[in-house]
Design brief:
Structural class: alpha+beta
Distance between the termini: 48 Å
Helix content: 25-40%
Largest sheet: 7 strands, mixed
Pfam families: Cupin_8 (PF13621)
Radius of gyration: 22 Å
Number of domains: 2
Bound molecules: fe (ii) ion
Strand order of the largest sheet: 6-7-17-13-19-11-10
Low-confidence stretches: none
Protein name: Cupin-like domain-containing protein
Number of strands: 19
Shape: globular
Mean pLDDT: 90
CATH architecture of the largest domain: Sandwich
Order of helices and strands: HEEEEHHEHHEHEHEEHEEEEEHEEEEE
């Protein structure tokens, strides 16, 4: 212990590390029976460092600290305090958090631990519960056709949302100008706009990102190896200067949380977003290429194996693109509503619908908004 360190703060730090370890243990799930070890080093309090060992449960060990581990994580105490205080809303992709942590070794173990220490708020739990009840009462799992509305009024949209019914809206042109966007047009009009590409934790200008994307598109996907970094913006914040061209639609800008950009190239067999659900109503505007969305009603929760540790959205253990029915036997009874979204169309997904998204065409661009209410 550094004797210059104030004792009270040290106590507080110890409590934070203890709380952090408990969050990891109580949130840990391991349905796939993965085995491995992660050394978690806290530089300010080396004696509080620990090795997390994957078993059916997560074991926290403080012996043989010099042994080899699959993954090494160095996390400052300030970040542990932040995790402990913000686990209901924390976004791991936030550079102020991820940028403070050093990872080496197999990153999949670190990702697994990162998921284990977040939790849903009571508000989120209540949203999912009420969606589940409503979808069950209305028999939404048996829907085979999504509803289309051509140039609807705001009132029609509010009615559909009140019934938690997904819908596709057509006839948006010419305002905003959803059609005829291309990579060249984006680079020309928004070349200087700064996009934070989350998957690469990079900030790039639109011109740079488009140039990279075109170079990537010139290479066939055959060259890709497992674990490649998708040239995809993964819901990066939509640059301000693009807001006017890409909605938001039907409601005021203040009614939505800031829009997100999904631009890039992802092969059809890899989902651009893997199976999850959101506690807010999502608006997804398709701009370039087509996307396919596979929707599952909220009352099918027990068939899809959603993770118990999550906060801003709830991912599922079950992967429809590589279904493992030995581990997830109930998933074979899940019923999916599949929708193809064309450029210029907007899908509204009420809170609680599970969804998995694929890019049918590359390049592909969508803009999403979450309605605040
Ligand atoms: Fe989503």
């Amino acid at each position: 212990m550094n004797i210059a360190y104030p004792a009270s703060e040290f106590e507080n730090d110890v409590a934070a590390v203890e709380g952090f370890a408990q969050l990891l243990q109580t949130g840990f799930e391991n349905p796939e029976g993965i085995r491995g070890t992660v050394r978690v080093t806290i530089p300010e309090h080396p004696e509080q460092s620990f090795i997390a060992r994957y078993s059916d449960t997560l074991l926290i060990e403080r012996h043989d600290m010099d042994r080899d581990t699959d993954t090494q994580v160095i996390i400052p105490i300030a970040t542990i305090h932040r995790i402990f205080n913000e686990f209901e809303s924390l976004d791991w992709r936030d550079p102020d958090i991820i940028g403070t942590i050093t990872f080496t070794g197999d990153l999949s173990f670190a990702n697994h631990l990162a998921r284990s220490c977040i939790r849903p708020s009571n508000w989120t739990l209540a949203r999912f519960r009420s969606a589940g009840r409503l979808h069950a009462a209305r028999g939404y799992r048996d829907l085979t056709q999504i509803e289309y509305l051509h140039q609807p009024t705001q009132r029609q949209i509010l009615e559909a949302m009140a019934k938690s019914r997904p819908l596709v809206i057509t006839g948006l042109e010419p305002s905003p100008p959803c059609r005829d966007w291309s990579l060249d047009k984006l680079a020309e009009r928004y070349g200087d706009a700064v996009v934070r590409v989350r998957s690469a934790t990079l900030r790039q200008t639109m011109a740079e990102f488009v140039a990279e994307l075109k170079a990537f598109e010139a290479n066939p996907y055959d060259n890709m190896i497992e674990g490649f970094v998708k040239p995809y913006t993964e819901g990066a914040a939509l640059p301000e200067q693009m807001w006017a061209d890409f909605g938001p639609l039907f409601f005021e800008r203040e009614d939505f949380i800031p829009p997100q950009l999904w631009l890039g190239s992802v092969p059809m067999h890899i989902p651009t977003s893997s199976l999850h659900r959101d506690p807010l109503t999502g608006f997804l505007l398709q701009v370039i290429g087509r996307k396919r969305l596979d929707l599952y009603s909220a009352d099918q929760e027990d068939l899809l194996y959603p993770m118990k540790s999550y906060n801003n959205y709830q991912p599922c253990w079950f992967k429809p693109e590589a279904p493992c029915t030995d581990l997830y036997p109930k998933a074979k009874d899940a019923k999916c509503l599949s929708v193809t979204l064309n450029p210029g169309e907007l899908i509204i997904q009420p809170a609680g619908w599970f969804h998995q998204v694929y890019a049918i065409d590359s390049p592909n661009m969508s803009v999403s908004y979450f309605w605040r209410y």
